[in-house]
Amino acid sequence: MFAPIKVGLPGFGGRMGQMIARLIQEDSSFDLVAATETLNSKLIGRDISHNLGTPKTGIKISASADILGNSSDVIIDFTQPEATMELVQIALKTNTPMVIGTTGLSKAQEKTISDAGKLIPIIYCANTSIGVTILLQQVQQIASKLEDSWDIEIIETHHNQKLDAPSGTALALGKAAAQGRSVLLEKVRVSGRDGITEVRKKGDIGFSAIRGGDIAGEHTVIFFGKNERIELTHKANDRVIFARGALKAAQFISGKSNQTNFNGYFTMDDVLN
User: Fold this and answer.
1) Which of 50, 60, 159, 162 is catalytic?
2) Does residue 50 carry a catalytic annotation?
3) Could you tell me what percent of the chain has a pLDDT over 70?
């Protein structure tokens, strides 16, 4: 019988933190051994059972991120970009694999993660949903088969508390389409059209963001041809799909730091293959 995977969970009090924590409590193959929150959080010092409605564990929520690397087999991170950068440095010091689902990262921050992947196993993806992973594959394949006379537009909808736009998933879909066309997204990306704009350029990939209510996430990729169009849509009805995907990724990557030649920068594609 295998020992449960020890999980360190930053951002315990957040939406994703709570979702992941609840799933861990229901799954004997995982053990939540460390949880953190920001220094000003009211959860600091409380038992992790406080928000979960479970018996006390003796594990206190801490403001020190160091405990995550010291006691965990894997860190699952759905926090903010600045916090993620700190966690990456901790993981490097303790040789702890990471699953990173944080969005809104800059190019420099993404490079920091990819560089860290040369030394420790890291899975970084904007969306840990299995369905979105399949959608990304299909978008790249379709884009590779259509001429650039087909216009591509990506529409994303999220709850009214989401800070970054376009969403990380929308940008990942754009990158998949651009890769299918063998171009860089930065060269063809168009976001936030307003007022009188230029005529749409051939090969552009457009983005539109909608914010409202409590929508967990909806993404539609549209390929516009002459007299026809292809629409691919993924709708997330509950954030639990992201939490399930994150735990699947944690199973894939945990314990790999001790395996020869397994350090690397992985995505959900690797988890499913």
Assistant:
1) 162
2) no
3) 96
